[in-house]
C-alpha cells in the first residue's frame, strides 16, 4: 500500500504535468484552427463557429466528468492519465479523418443558414471529442486535492501551470513546428507530450494515496457560507470580458504590428503569460485574504486595466516613433512587437488570470467534491468566454466598433464586480463600503466615456502609420465583421483603398495597370469567355474590366467582407465601371477558398487578387491544393490569373509562390507590372498548352464592340495590344533553374505564410524582378502570328525591360 505523503511535495510534479497538458493543447489548437479553416473557411462566422465548438467542448468536459465518474471509483491521477491518452488519440484521429470529412462536407454544403449549420456540425465532429477531454483534465486531477484553503490554492496553481505550458505550446507551434515542419509533425509532437504526461501520471497514481493529505476542509472564509451563484456569474462575466478583449485587442494589434502568424503568436503568448502569472499570484493570495473580496476588487481593477489598454492602443502605441523599414531583421521586429504587446495588454491579463483561483476559493464549501468545484467554475468561465468571443466578433464590432466595444468591456467588468461586492457591502452595513462601491462605479463610467476608438490612420496604414503621417487625408474608415477598411487620399492626389492596415488598391498609375492587367490579360487571351470568377472585390477595378466585354454573361465576385463592395463603389465607381451594379454580377460574401471548394460551377476565367501572403490565413489562396481546386473549376480552354507581389517580400517567398503555381499549371507564364519597376506581377495559367495568336488577338481587339476595352487599356498606359503583351516576363520552362529548390506551399504546411512573415520589411522588388527577367528566353513557342507582329513584340519587350 502506498505511503501517504504530506505537504505539497507530492503535488509539485502535477504542475509539470499540467504545463505539458497546456503545451500540447495549444499546439493542437493552432493546428486545428489552421486545418479546419481550409474546409469551413476563414470568415468571422466560420471562425466563430470554430471557436464556439472548441470552447464548448472544454465547457462540457469540465461539467460532465464529475457527473460521469464517482469520486471514489478510481484514483484521480489515473483518470487524468487516461484523459491525456484519449486526447492524444483524438488529436491524431482529427488529422487522419479530415480528408474523409472534407469530401462529405463539400458534397453537401451550400450557402446561408444551412451552410452555417453544416460548418457547426463539421466542427463538432472534429473538435468536441478532444476538447471534451481537455475540459475534463483539470477536474479529473483536481479530485486528488481537498477543498481546503491549501488544496483550493493548488487547484489555481494547476490552472496557472496549464496556462504557462500553453505559452510554450503557442511559441513552439507558431515559431518552430509549423514554420519548419507541417501540421502532421506538430500533431504528433503534441500527442507525444500527452503520452509522456499520461505515463508519469500513471506512475504517480501507483505511488500516492487516492486523496492527497492536508488540512481538513473549511467553510469559505469570505462570508462563512458555502459558495453561491454570484461567484459563478462573476467568473462567467470575467471570461466574457477576457475573450471579448482578446478579440478586439488582437484585431487592433494586428493592424499595428502586421497581421502575420508570428504577430498573432506573440499576442497570444503575452495574453497567456499574463493569465499564468496572474493565476499563480491569485492562488497565493487566496490563502491570505478573503477571496470574495479579492475577486470583486480584481474585477474593479480590471476597469482601470481595460481603460489602460484602450488608451495605449488608441493614443500611445500607434504614435511610438517606430519605422518598421529601418531593419530587415525579423528578430529586431519581434523584440519591439513583444515590448509593445506587454506594455499594452499585460496588466489586464494578470487580473483575469488571478480571477480564476480567487473564484475557486470563493465558491469552495465544506466537503464539496473538488472536481465539481473546479468543473463548475471552469465551465462558467468558459461559457462566458464563448459568449464574449462570439458576440463581440460577430455582432458588436461591426455594430458599435472597437471603441464602443471597449467601453462595454469596462462596464461589464464593473458589473461583474457588483455581483460579489454588493452582498459583502450589504452584510457589512458600512457607509464607507457603500460610498466606495458607488465611487468605483462612477470612475468606471468616466473611464468608459473617455475611451477613444482606433485612429483612422492606424486602420489605413497599420504598421507603417509613422511613415505615412502628414501625407494622407482619411476620407473614410470603417470596421467590418471580418476586417477594417479605409479610404484615403495621398498627397499626390491618388485615392487609396486599405484593408486591415494595408494599401490594397489605389488610383496610382502602377496600381491601376496591375488591376487592369489581372482582368484584361485573360479577358483578351480567352477566345470567347462567358463566365468569370473574381476572388476579392478590392477596389473593384479588376472585376470592372470584365464589364467591358460584351460576350461575358456571368460575373461572380467572391468577397469576405460585406463592407467592402459598397464602400469601394462609392469611391472607385469611375475606375471600376460601377461593377457592383452591373446586372451580370453576383457577389458572394464568403471566404473565397471555401466558395471554390464547395461550388459546382465552372468558369472560363478565374482571377485572384488576395491580400499579401504574409497576412495570416491568406497563404491558403496560394497553396498547391487551392490551385488544383481552381483548375478543377475551369471550363476547357479556361484561364486563371493570380497576383504575385514582389514588394514587402524576398526571393524565397516569391520563388515559393511561382513554383507552387507552376506545379499545377506547368504551362504558366509571368507578366510584370513594368510601370511599377517590378513592383508586382501576374501569373497566368491554363490546363492546355498555351498559344497566343497575335493576329487573331488583334482582330478580336479591333472589333467595334471591344472599343471600350481598348480605351480601358489606353487609360492606364497600354496604347496598343503589343504594349500589354510586352510585359511578358517568362514562362515555367524559362524559370525552372531559378525556382530549383523552392518551397512548395501546401495545405499541410502553409509554408508560404511563415516565409513571407519574415520578409515583410524588405524592399527587394526591383532585384527580384530583374532576376526573373534574366531567365526569360525569346517566347517563339508561346506567341504565334505574322513575322511583323512577332518582331514588334520582341522589340517592345526589350524596351520595357530597359
Characterize the largest beta sheet: strand count, sense, and whether it forms a barrel: 8 strands, mixed
**Gyration radius over CA:** 29 Å
Shape estimate: elongated
- Round the mean pLDDT to the nearest integer and report it: 90
Describe the overall structure.
The structure is a single chain. The protein is of the alpha/beta class. It is 62% helix and 10% strand. It is built from 27 helices and 14 strands. The strands form three sheets. It has an eight-stranded mixed beta sheet, sandwiched between helices. A four-stranded antiparallel beta sheet has the order 1-2-3-4. The chain has a two-stranded parallel ribbon with strand order 12-14. The chain is elongated, with a radius of gyration of 29 Å.
Question: Main attributes?
Answer:
802 residues; alpha/beta; eight-stranded mixed β-sheet; four-stranded antiparallel β-sheet; 27 helices; elongated; disordered N terminus
Topology:
Elements: H1 12-40, H2 44-68, H3 76-108, H4 113-142, H5 149-180, H6 183-207, H7 229-257, H8 261-285, H9 291-316, H10 330-363, H11 370-428, H12 431-449, H13 456-461, H14 465-468, E1 472-479, E2 484-490, E3 495-499, E4 502-506, H15 509-525, E5 531-535, H16 541-545, E6 554-559, H17 564-572, E7 585-589, H18 592-598, E8 603-608, H19 624-632, E9 634-645, H20 651-664, E10 669-672, E11 680-686, E12 692-693, H21 694-701, H22 707-715, H23 721-725, E13 728-731, H24 732-735, H25 751-756, H26 765-774, E14 783-784, H27 787-801
Parallel strand pairs: 5-6, 5-8, 6-7, 8-9, 12-14
Antiparallel strand pairs: 1-2, 2-3, 3-4, 9-11, 10-11, 10-13
Helix pairs in contact: 1-2, 1-3, 1-4, 1-5, 1-6, 2-4, 2-11, 3-4, 3-6, 4-11, 5-8, 5-10, 7-8, 7-9, 7-10, 7-11, 8-10, 9-10, 9-11, 9-12, 10-11, 11-12, 19-20
Amino acid at each position: 500500500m502506498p505511503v501517504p505523503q504530506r505537504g505539497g511535495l507530492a503535488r509539485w510534479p502535477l504542475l509539470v504535468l499540467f504545463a505539458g497538458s497546456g503545451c500540447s493543447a495549444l499546439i493542437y489548437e493552432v493546428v486545428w484552427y489552421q486545418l479546419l479553416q481550409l474546409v469551413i473557411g476563414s470568415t468571422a462566422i466560420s471562425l466563430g463557429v470554430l471557436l464556439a465548438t472548441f470552447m464548448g467542448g472544454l465547457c462540457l468536459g469540465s461539467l460532465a466528468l464529475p457527473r460521469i465518474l464517482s469520486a471514489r471509483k478510481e484514483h484521480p491521477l489515473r483518470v487524468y492519465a487516461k484523459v491525456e491518452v484519449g486526447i492524444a488519440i483524438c488529436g491524431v484521429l482529427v488529422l487522419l479523418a479530415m480528408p474523409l470529412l472534407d469530401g462529405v462536407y463539400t458534397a453537401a454544403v451550400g450557402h446561408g443558414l444551412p451552410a452555417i449549420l453544416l460548418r457547426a456540425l463539421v466542427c463538432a465532429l472534429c473538435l468536441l471529442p478532444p476538447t471534451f477531454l481537455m475540459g475534463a483534465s483539470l477536474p479529473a486531477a483536481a479530485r486528488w486535492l481537498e477543498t481546503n484553503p491549501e488544496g483550493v490554492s493548488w487547484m489555481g496553481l494547476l490552472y496557472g501551470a496549464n496556462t504557462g505550458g500553453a505559452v510554450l505550446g503557442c511559441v513552439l507551434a507558431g515559431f518552430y513546428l509549423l514554420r519548419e515542419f507541417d501540421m502532421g509533425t506538430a500533431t504528433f509532437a503534441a500527442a507525444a507530450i500527452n503520452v509522456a504526461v499520461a505515463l508519469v501520471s500513471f506512475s504517480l497514481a501507483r505511488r500516492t494515496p487516492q486523496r492527497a493529505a492536508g488540512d481538513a476542509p473549511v467553510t469559505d472564509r469570505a462570508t462563512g457560507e458555502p459558495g453561491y451563484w454570484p461567484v459563478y456569474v462573476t467568473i462567467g462575466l470575467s471570461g466574457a470580458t477576457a475573450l471579448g478583449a482578446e478579440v478586439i485587442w488582437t484585431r487592433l494589434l494586428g493592424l499595428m504590428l502586421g497581421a502575420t502568424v508570428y504577430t498573432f503568436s506573440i499576442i497570444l503568448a503575452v495574453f497567456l503569460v499574463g493569465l499564468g502569472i496572474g493565476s499563480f499570484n491569485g492562488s497565493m493570495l487566496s490563502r491570505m485574504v478573503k477571496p470574495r473580496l479579492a475577486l470583486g476588487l480584481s474585477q474593479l481593477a480590471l476597469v482601470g486595466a481595460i481603460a489602460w489598454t484602450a488608451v495605449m492602443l488608441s493614443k500611445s502605441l500607434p504614435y511610438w516613433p517606430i519605422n518598421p523599414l529601418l531593419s530587415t531583421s525579423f528578430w529586431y521586429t519581434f523584440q519591439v512587437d513583444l515590448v509593445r504587446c506587454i506594455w499594452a495588454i499585460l496588466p489586464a491579463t494578470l487580473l483575469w488570470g488571478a480571477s480564476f483561483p480567487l473564484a475557486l476559493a470563493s465558491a469552495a464549501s465544506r466537503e464539496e467534491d473538488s472536481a465539481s468545484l473546479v468543473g463548475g467554475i471552469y465551465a462558467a468561465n468558459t461559457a462566458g468566454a464563448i459568449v464574449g468571443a462570439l458576440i463581440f466578433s460577430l455582432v458588436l464590432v461591426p455594430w458599435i466598433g472597437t471603441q464602443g466595444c471597449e467601453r462595454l468591456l469596462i462596464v461589464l467588468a464593473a458589473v461583474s464586480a457588483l455581483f460579489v461586492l454588493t452582498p459583502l457591502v450589504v452584510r457589512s452595513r458600512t457607509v464607507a463600503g457603500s460610498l466606495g462601491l458607488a465611487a468605483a462605479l462612477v470612475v468606471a463610467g468616466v473611464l468608459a466615456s473617455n475611451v477613444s476608438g482606433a485612429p483612422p490612420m492606424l486602420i489605413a496604414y497599420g504598421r507603417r502609420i509613422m511613415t505615412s503621417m502628414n501625407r494622407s487625408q482619411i476620407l473614410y474608415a470603417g470596421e467590418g465583421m471580418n476586417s477594417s477598411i479605409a479610404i484615403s487620399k495621398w498627397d499626390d492626389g491618388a485615392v487609396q483603398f486599405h484593408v486591415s492596415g494595408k494599401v490594397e488598391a489605389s488610383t496610382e498609375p502602377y496600381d491601376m495597370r496591375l488591376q487592369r492587367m489581372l482582368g484584361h490579360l485573360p479577358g483578351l487571351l480567352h477566345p470567347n469567355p462567358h463566365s468569370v470568377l473574381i476572388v476579392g472585390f478590392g477596389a473593384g477595378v479588376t472585376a470592372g474590366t470584365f464589364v467591358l466585354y460584351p460576350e461575358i454573361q456571368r460575373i461572380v465576385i467572391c468577397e469576405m467582407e460585406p463592407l467592402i463592395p459598397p464602400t469601394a463603389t462609392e469611391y472607385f465607381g469611375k475606375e471600376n465601371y460601377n461593377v457592383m451594379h452591373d446586372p451580370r454580377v453576383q457577389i458572394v460574401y464568403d471566404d473565397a477558398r471555401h466558395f471554390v471548394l464547395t461550388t459546382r460551377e465552372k468558369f472560363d476565367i478565374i482571377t485572384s487578387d488576395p491580400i499579401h501572403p504574409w497576412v495570416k490565413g491568406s497563404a491558403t489562396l496560394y497553396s498547391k491544393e487551392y490551385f488544383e481546386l481552381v483548375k478543377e473549376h475551369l471550363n476547357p480552354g479556361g484561364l486563371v490569373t493570380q497576383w504575385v507581389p514582389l514588394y514587402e517580400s524576398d526571393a524565397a517567398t516569391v520563388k515559393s509562390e511561382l513554383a507552387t503555381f507552376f506545379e499545377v499549371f506547368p504551362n504558366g507564364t509571368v507578366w510584370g507590372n513594368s510601370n511599377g519597376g517590378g513592383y508586382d506581377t501576374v501569373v497566368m495559367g491554363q490546363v492546355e498548352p498555351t498559344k497566343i495568336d497575335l493576329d487573331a488577338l488583334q482582330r478580336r481587339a479591333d472589333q467595334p464592340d471591344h472599343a471600350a476595352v481598348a480605351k480601358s487599356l489606353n487609360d492606364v498606359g497600354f496604347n496598343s495590344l503589343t504594349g500589354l503583351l510586352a510585359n511578358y516576363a517568362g514562362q515555367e520552362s524559362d524559370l525552372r533553374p531559378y525556382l530549383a529548390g523552392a518551397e512548395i506551399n501546401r495545405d499541410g504546411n502553409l509554408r508560404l505564410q511563415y516565409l513571407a512573415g519574415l520578409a515583410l520589411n524588405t524592399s527587394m522588388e526591383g532585384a527580384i524582378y530583374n532576376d526573373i527577367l534574366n531567365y526569360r528566353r525569346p517566347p517563339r513557342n508561346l506567341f504565334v502570328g505574322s513575322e511583323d507582329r512577332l518582331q514588334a513584340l520582341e522589340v517592345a519587350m526589350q524596351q520595357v525591360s530597359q
